[in-house]
Amino acid sequence: MSIASEVRSRRALLTAGLGAFAATVAGAITRPDPARAHDPDDVRLGGNNFPTATTAIQNTTTDSTVVWAVSSSGVALRGSSSSESGVLGSSNSGNGVVATSESAAGVWASSAGGNGVYGHTNTAVGSGVYGENTHQGYGVAGRSNSAPLGANGVFAAATLGDNTANGVGVWARSTHGVGLYADAVEADAVALQANGVTQFRRSGRLTLKAGTSSVTKSGIRIDAGTLVLATLQQDRAGIFVRSAVPNAAGDSFTIRLNKAVAADIKVGWFLVN
User: Fold this and answer.
1) What CA–CA distances, in Å, run from 227 to 149, 203, 248, 273?
2) Dihedral sign, CA of 44, 50, 51, 56?
3) Do 164 and 229 meet the contact criterion of CB atoms below 8 Å apart?
4) How far is residue 253's CA from residue 244's CA, in Å, rounded to a whole number?
5) Using one digit for the tens of pLDDT, what is the confidence trace for 90-147?
6) Model confidence pTM above 0.85
7) Which runs of consecutive H residues, i.e. helices, occur in the chain?
């Protein structure tokens, strides 16, 4: 073999060797390291991940959604915990958690041993739980299928309002309609039951002065169906309430006795309807 042929053969072998080395290096760069792919702190799609530290995804430049989970039939996003909150949402100015649905519940919560939904606030102008319906439905609704727990007046209530201080347990208010409506569906049901002292603002006492036989209460709402109930608050022989007449046009009512009294006497009154 001539010297020129031997040089050309050596060059060919060297070129082939360099090509194979370059291919090996390129393959090592492009192929993931098996040990790195199974790092417990990596997040892998389509598999279980067991991180040993917190995984944070932050967006500090735009108002775009940070994480968007979409599912055509299953659960889009699920969180669970054996001791802490399954899902925690917080915000400095907006809503901590927003949930919407086109046909089912916006938020569906269930608990095997505690409250299904618990709401808490530290402000006097907010509510622990606030419900609003803008289309003739219920703002807040509760349902229970449990019977009374006993004959001591303790009930398994669909809705419970409990105030441990000196405030109101349940406040019902209406601008123009009915503030509180109690409905007994079946004939053996009770629409309203009170256990304890009851107070009504449309009741009170009037004093008939000595020498008079009637007294009028003015400036109180009287409707066409209002009933006035009146009874003496003192025992006077031969004295009784002759009539209690409502005046819807004048928003007043008049209580008359059978005769003038020799001394002041008090009459209790109560308006119904």
Assistant:
1) 37, 12, 11, 6
2) positive
3) no
4) 7
5) 888 888 888 888 888 888 888 888 888 899 899 888 898 999 999 888 999 988 887 7
6) no
7) 3-30, 34-37
Tens-digit pLDDT profile for residues 206-251: 999 999 999 999 999 999 999 999 999 999 999 999 999 999 999 9
Strands (E), the chain: 203-208, 214-218, 227-232, 241-247, 252-257, 265-272
CA distance 28 to 215: 105
Q: Which residues contact 144 (CB under 8 A, 6 or more apart)?
A: 156, 157, 158
> Rounded distance, CA 254 to CA 214, Å?
7
The residue whose two tokens read 């050596």 is 10
Task: Locate 55 and state its tokens.
Answer: 């995984």
Task: Kindly report the three-state secondary structure assignment for every residue of 100-143.
Answer: CCCCCCCCCCCCCCCCCCCCCCCCCCCCCCCCCCCCCCCCCCCC
